[in-house]
Prior knowledge:
- This protein is of the alpha+beta class.
- It has 4 helices and 4 strands; from the N terminus they run ααβββαβα.
- The chain has helices spanning 2-10, 20-29, 74-83, 101-105, and strands at 32-37, 44-52, 57-65, 92-94.
- Helix 3 links the parallel strand 3 and strand 4 (92-94).
- The longest helix is centred in the first third of the chain and has 10 residues, at 20-29.
- The chain is globular, with a radius of gyration of 14 Å.
- The model has no long low-confidence stretch (mean pLDDT 94).
Amino acid sequence: MDVVWTYLSTDAYWGTWRTREQITTQVAVSWRVVGAYHRATGAQVGFARALSDGIAIAYLADVFVLESARGQGLGKALVRTMIDDGPGARFRWMLHTRDAHTLYQSFGFAAPDETYMDRPSKF
């Protein structure tokens, strides 16, 4: 949790407002959590979590790769592991992003259609 907390509380534009306790709770109640680790040292370098009903829909959240480990395909590996290689491979997946559209488009994510509505956060 130290790496997750440090990144999400300092570098994540989408959630620096959360407390450590809130992030710990979010991770604990997540449907699925995936981490990426440096082979030689075992140090955590990436993370993703998902919320789901476990049957049909899932929301991908808090995906990150530390800057020191970027450019090696870890972001793609995290997303692939989460959405294609696990129990949610047939689900409808949702997410929000400001800067990683190209990454997610490569996995089939697209702008919402006329059936999708979103209520923005009040933060």
